[in-house]
Design brief:
about 95% helix, about 140 residues, 2 helices, mainly alpha
């Protein structure tokens, strides 16, 4: 930029401020101004792009963090599903054991009922025999 300004100044000195030189000077000044505006616009665009890049990097970090949390949550979910499956299996086994115990208990109760019935019959028979023997003794 300084070089161009120097050129403009040099041209001014070399000429006697002729209209052609003044026109060229004006064109050069306008070109310099346009280039400076373009440069400023490009610098602003670079700043915006840098900010967008920083925002994108932040978003990528958030995405990576969320992806990791999702994977950890999915893993925890699978572990919990396995634990639930194991608990359901143990519950089913316990229920089967309880049902088997109930069946055994019913069989035992039926057996005990039969034995109680037999003992009751035996007691009744013994009571009749004792009664008959007492009657016979009284008769004798």
């Amino acid at each position: 930029m300084e070089f161009r300004c120097y050129q403009v100044t040099e041209l001014e000195c070399q000429s006697n401020q002729s209209p052609v030189i003044k026109s060229q000077k004006a064109e050069l000044n306008q070109t310099i101004e346009e280039l400076e505006n373009t440069l400023r616009d490009k610098e602003e665009e670079m700043e915006r792009l840098k900010e967008e890049l920083e925002n994108m990097n932040d978003l990528m970090e958030q995405k990576d963090s969320l992806t990791q949390k999702l994977e950890e949550t999915e893993l925890r979910g699978r572990v919990l599903e396995e634990q639930l499956s194991g608990a359901e299996q143990r519950l089913e086994e316990n229920q089967e054991e309880q049902e088997s115990f109930r069946k055994s208990l019913r069989t035992l109760l039926e057996l005990l009922d039969g034995k109680i019935f037999e003992l009751t019959e035996l007691r009744d028979t013994l009571a009749r025999l004792i009664e008959e023997e007492e009657e016979e003794e009284e008769e004798a």
